[in-house]
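Deliverable D5.2: sample structural annotation.
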Amino acid sequence: MAKTDLSEERPVKRTFTASVSREGDWFVAQCLEVDVASQGESEVEALANLREALELFFEEPQATAIPQVRHIEVEVSAA
């Protein structure tokens, strides 16, 4: 069986669920399956922006400079 080149694979379409709410002058669309949200001046714009944000979220990572990782200390109240 021949190996397939991963760069030639076609994207897979997947359906997600979004909640849309109004916050002041903005509509906020939030994906319920993945922690991604976006906003727009209309419900249609908020959903279009969420679609774009999800596409970017699932995009293959590109080689970039290695990030510098640091530790930070934060005081939190005991719950």
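Annotation notes: The first helix runs from residue 43 to 57. Residues 14-57 form one domain.
The annotation will be released with the project's public dataset once the embargo ends.
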